[in-house]
Amino acid sequence: MDDRTIDLIFAGSLEKLPPVSSKIVRIFTSSTFTDTTMERNTLMAKCYPKIKDYCREKHGLEFQVVDMRWGVRDEATDDHMTTELCMKEIQNCQRLSMGPNFVVFLGQKYGYRPIPTYVLSSELQLIRDELAATGHDPVLIDTWYRKDANAVPPISILQPISSILINFNNKRIPKLQAEDQAKWWDTLGKFQKLFRKASSSLHQQGKMDRDAMHNYFMSEREVINGVLNVKNTKNHCLAYIRYINNINLQNLKKASLFVDIINRSLDVESAKLLANLRDERLPAKIESSNLVKYTVEWIGREGLDNETHEEYLKNFITHFYKNIIKLVDRAMRKEDSSAQGQIVTEILQHLHACNNSVKVFYGREDSLDHINKYMTGDSDKCLILYGEGGCGKTSLLAKSAGMSTGKEWFKGAKPISIVRFLGTTPDSSALTPTLISICQQISYNFMLPFEGIPDDLVPLTAHFKQLLTMATKEQPFLLFLDSVDQLTGTQDANKVSWLPTRLPPHCKIIVSCACEESNPDVSKEYHVLRRMIDVEDNFIEVRALGEDLAMKVIKMWMQTAHRDLTNYQWRLVSNAIDKCSLPIFVKLVFAEICRWRSYTKSQDTYLASTVMDSIMMLFERIEKQHGRILVFHALAYITAAKSGLSESELEDLISLDDKVLDDVYQYHLPPVRRIPPLLWTRIRNDLPNYLSEREADGVSVMNWYHRQFRDAAKERYFKNMNMATYFHSMTADYFLGIWGGGKPKPFKYTEIQRHRFNLTDREGIADRKVPVQPLFFHSKEGTVSRYNLRKFGELPFHLVRSRRFTDLYENVLFNYEWLHAKLSSCPLQAVLADYEDACLHIDDKESKRELQLVADALRLGGAVLGQYPNMLAPQLVGRLLPEVGNNPNIKMLLNDCDLKGPKQCSLLPLYHCLHTPGGPLKYSLEGHQFAVFSICLTSDYRYVVSISNRFITWDLSTSDLTRDVNPNIEGIMQHLVLSPDNKWAAAYTNNNQTVLLNMLSSEFVTIDNPLGDSKPITGTYLLNYNLFIYGDDEWVMFDMRGNLEERYTAPLDRNEWPILHMEFDSTEEYRVIFWKGNIDDDRMLLYVTTKNGVFENFEYHSAMVLTKDKNALYTCTTPECYAVSKYIKNGDTNKWEKVCDLPRSENDDTEMLLQLKLDKEDRFLFGTTSNGFVIWDLNEEKIVDNAISLTLPYSTRNITTKMLQSNSVMLSSHRNFAIAGVRKNLYVWNIETRKLVKVLDAHFGRIIQLEPLTIGNWNSMVTSSIDRTVKVWNINNIFETVHVIDRHELQVDSISLSDNLSLAVTATRNCVGVWDLKVGKLIAKLADSPLGAIIHHISQTGNLLIWLRLTQQVIFKDQQPV
User: Fold this and answer.
1) By the 8 A CB rule, do 664 and 679 touch?
2) Are 371 and 510 in contact (CB under 8 A)?
């Protein structure tokens, strides 16, 4: 693909689109029917499975073979459609296949020369007249060909054989069938003679050209289309030519399988035609390296046989295998697997879909005018196309994209058109990959690197909106997003809140979504969009076409298809359209009437009056035509699949389904027990636009194009729940790999087979040639080369829905190898989704609890497992050991971890050592190597940003680590601030550097201390476009690139009042808190400057907090007392005015107030005192009138390390509990009784920060600690049992083991610990006094101490010289 083509694709041009690169190797094998049976059977049994494995393991490609003759008993199919299907399949292979697409096998037999199925009526009339003129009776032509005047121009159609020879397909009475088949072959022979004679004569008379004449002679249409008309045969075509020496013509029956016989001797005409093709035209066209010739001997009665020609077959399949994989490898080397190559493939799929819709679009001028006005007008909001399913929203959106890029609407501009039919490709099914691909498309056009695009949804959405601002008049952005309601993985309950509510100039977005009055679930997104976009003119309802337009559209489509109808048939169409004129219905009607001939009987020209009935009618017709059981099962498998099935998977599933095979092979025994590929090809051909191809798990799959088809298929095939269970169970067996890799599957012979073939056995076994289904594939070196993503996506889904819970537990949800492989290749969320899905379908409470425990254990370890999946076994064992007793499935999983975990991580814990799920701890977020000194929640409460020597961001709803940035600084960051739009984060370090981080792109700037005389930094503050760094007497303003813009000096003397804290609303409006510079002097001063001027300095002491709007504050102003008063801002006098005193709390005359904080609604005020906490309800409807005093236990105190900062307290979402973090514990009080009801051992080190997370259904909080972790707690579970992990408070300095290894003794700086190694419990802490001592090998206190372990008493103490 050249650069110009790529540029046009990225610009969204719909002109001259190259084909889409697929994930399929699909070869058409062309051969004559009888003489290559041995080779084709050998390939099917021994070679194709190996090629399939190679393609899947090495390249992640699907390998498919289209052999239209394998497994088919008689080539002359009843409806004469084989030739036409072959041509279509050759085109499909050429369109789809990666590398090889056509293999021809030629021998010494020219083969079956069918007579044309369709002949121009005018041409047939010429032939008829010629035959009549030369004395031949034209009755044969009049009997077998019927003129279809509905074709334009009229054509004559060869009638189905069984319509005249009614026993042709009667397998039940073989004698009658044989008679009719003999009659047909006799008729065919007569036809061939008559046609060749007449066409030769007409050619000589100049009434017929050479090609038209050759049409009645040849059998080589496949080779012409597959090789001779192909430009590049080197990369796509292979030819195998086999000569047999000494064919025994005495045995005519056998010889006729390998050479053309006519009148008991060689057919000279066929031999000439074959020689011309095989020896001249083919070698002249195909690369010599791609053509192989074999010569073999005729041996024995059979001539060719597997045993006598074993060496030849071995050489043949070895060469075939090598040649095919050579062409596949060559194609893959050219494939662009870079990010750019992948996005080109993604955009192309949508542009092709758009083109296909535009081709068949007619009418709707009013809607197009409306869209034109929007596109060229100044509206700054999205345009919404809405309507019921099947009303034509997609076509209208596609036509709008076509008009926009086709220069009709934007003359003189070069718009960038971004088209996405959401849900039709894997990268357009979920919001995150969709936005990434849109950002990549815009970035390419502006030469921006793809690396700058975030992969986390919140910054990604912001980045997307930022990119939209790059649109210009010369290069406007036009986004067309179809079926926005099909998106998954959005952050909110609705799927549209990420759309911009205001668009930047020169940017337009058209969105389509469903809206059905009778279906509120489907209409949910439409109603959200109505609230987001309050302009009526920006909504276009796409209605049914109406009878007039619908009839007009059908007539246009018929014209394009070169079809017409009789007057009676047109009346039937008009009656149907009168009842329903939805585009989807019109398409179904069009597909049906295209089949009608002018001679079709009136009872066969029936049209339904609803979409559902039309689809049911279509299914019924296909079932009648191709066999009910085959069609039922094939379509049911596609409907049952989670994300569609590839053609190979479907063929494999049907080949494992003996209900289908018993029906297909009622009357004969196949060489390999698999479904003949031709049978599915014929069904797919009758469902042309109803099955769409899309990608899932890196494979091209088929799925229903429209929701109505899926609903109809479910209604038809899954009405009986046992049938649904059957298909899910069969699919589960396939992805479990039960019959893969050569394991034969038993089957029962049908009664007819036993009778016809004199079989004594009732049962047989047969290898179905389906692939193995490992969790991953290995390279030659033995390393993991790729994971089996199809298995990960489909297997759990089918095991759940077939209610095979034992298999689900053993193979998936409680299986270590499965969990490790899926975690290594998929996001943690995909693994957790399997547990959530299982819980929804399981009734057993105990099993449900076990599932939730494992899922919660994975969540708790999410921060580690997201980066290091090899830590899975230690995480599961360390967390779930206490739950082994009553939970057999967890026991099974942990045994699995013990056995198989050491392959990935040898350090497996023997004892419980990590927090166990099921209690209050929801997630433990790990990743920091130093204390986490500060955390911030984003304004939507979705993410927590944390700092140590690096910035780490976690998703609070999934525990995923979404960003980890190491700015490579020497110090530890102290205080984190976020900009109001959450785009920027900043923190300063203990060595006075400041780091400014772009949260969207992860780019950062490090700023050295900008303050005069190298004074220490006191703090930082962020606005959306500026960073402020302040010291004790000045502050400095920077832009977001780290450039210094302005210096400011403090308005007060630093010696008297140094700066403690600053907040900015803009560069002119800010607040400064000054203090005395001494932590024992609690006096402070608030300095405020606004647009109205500077406020009078406001002095207070101890603690102060401002409301969200900064118009009120709560503080202590009463001397010698810690009572709290409320002040409000008076903009007229520029003074703070006292409003009231809050209710007094206990001991507020003596107990110092260390901190005041407000909740996010400014309803509750929280005070921290040295002995506990005070809570005031500021609402008019108070839960209590007085101050709520909560006291800490004796000997536990709140301390302050910085003015205005201390330990925090919060209220649960139901306001029934207060929770505070003090030292390393969480303290819980009952608000009603004010009693301390729970002390929770929360962290291994002091808790630095506690933030409430009570929003929506969340009743949680987040804590950070010097133990290097951030933890999320579920307050609803605060009283559940906690499995305590024994530990020392200080680091362990030494360990000693007893002789029999039953005890261990550990020394820390304040005690000696004695551990029971059988259970991993700390059974004693030994010290000389209750307050502990400093312990060392040679004690620093100078004492030698000996304890009696049983009594824990010191029995000997000796002063040692130091």
Assistant:
1) yes
2) yes
- The string of DSSP codes covering 196-224 is HHHHHHHHHTTSS-HHHHHTTT---HHHI
Q: Hey, how many other C-beta atoms are within 10 angstroms of the C-beta on 37?
A: 16
The tokens 């001249």 sit on which residue?
A: 280
Sequence-ordered list of residues with C-beta below 8 angstroms from that of 593, at least 6 positions apart, any chain: 554, 558, 563, 565, 569, 573, 607
Amino acid identity of 318? T
Q: Provide the sign of the torsion angle of the four alpha carbons 981, 987, 993, 999, taken in this order.
A: negative
Q: How far apart are CA 41 and CA 25, in angstroms?
A: 20
> Is the pLDDT higher at 1330 or at 1065?
1065
Inter-axis angle of helices 628-640 and 707-717, to 10 degrees? Answer: 120
Return the closest-CA partner of residue 623 out of 640, 614, 635.
Answer: 635
pLDDT at 148 over 50: yes
CA–CA separation, 16 vs 123, rounded Å?
36
d(Cα 173, Cα 167) in Å, to the nearest integer? 8
Q: What average pLDDT does the chain have?
A: 87
Answer for the pair 332, 59: CB distance below 8 angstroms, yes or no: yes
Task: Report the pLDDT averaged over residues 330-355.
Answer: 80
Phi, then psi, of 456 in degrees rounded to 5: -105, 140
> Which tokens hold the place of 1166?
């929280």
Mean pLDDT of 825-829: 83
The pLDDT of 1063-1068, averaged and rounded, is: 91
Contact assessment for residue 458 and residue 943, using Cβ atoms and an 8 Å cutoff? yes
Question: Residue 891: in which H helix or E strand, if any?
Answer: helix 888-900
Residues 6 or more apart from 1013 whose CB is under 8 A from it? none
CB 1074 within 8 A of CB 1061: no
pTM of the model: 0.75
DSSP assignment of 513-562, as one string?
EE--TT-TTTTHHHHHHHHH---GGGEEE-----HHHHHHHHHHHHHHTT
Q: Are strands 921-926 and 1269-1274 parallel, antiparallel or unpaired?
A: antiparallel
Q: Which of 616-625, 686-695, 816-825, 1145-1154 has the highest mean pLDDT?
A: 816-825
SS3 state at 391: coil
Please report, for residues 347, 587, 746, 994, the alpha-carbon distance to residue 400 in angstroms, rounded to integers and kept in the order given. Answer: 17, 20, 56, 50
pLDDT band of 994, cuts 50, 70, 90: very high
How many alpha carbons fall within 13 Å on the CB side of residue 858?
Answer: 28
Grade residue 1340 by pLDDT with cuts at 50, 70 and 90.
Answer: very low
Widest distance between CA atoms in the chain: 137
Q: Does residue 439 have a pLDDT over 90?
A: yes
> Which sign, positive or negative, has the C-alpha torsion 883, 885, 888, 894?
positive
572 in Cβ contact with 605 (< 8 Å): yes
Q: Tokens standing for 800?
A: 């759940």
580: left (phi over 0), alpha (psi -120 to 50) or beta: beta
Q: What is the CA radius of gyration of the chain?
A: 40
> Which residues does residue 1104 pair with via DSSP β-bridges, in sequence order?
1115
| Distance in angstroms (rounded) separating the CA atoms of residues 1071 and 30 | 83
Q: How far apart are CA 992 and CA 970, in angstroms?
A: 10
Q: How far is CA 294 from the centre of its chain?
A: 48
Q: How far apart are CA 600 and CA 189, in angstroms?
A: 28
**pLDDT at position 412:** 76
| Structure tokens, 40 | 């084709």
Is the pLDDT at 369 greater than 50, yes or no?
A: yes
Side-chain half-sphere exposure of 176, counting CA atoms within 13 A: 10
Query: Are residues 1104 and 1084 in contact, defined by beta-carbon separation less than 8 angstroms?
Result: yes
pLDDT at 1338: 38
pLDDT by residue (tens digit) across 512-543? 998 888 777 778 888 888 877 878 899 999 88
The pair of structure tokens assigned to 638 is 């596609």
Contact predicate 489/422, CB 8 Å: no
Contact 1075, 1057 (CB under 8 A): yes
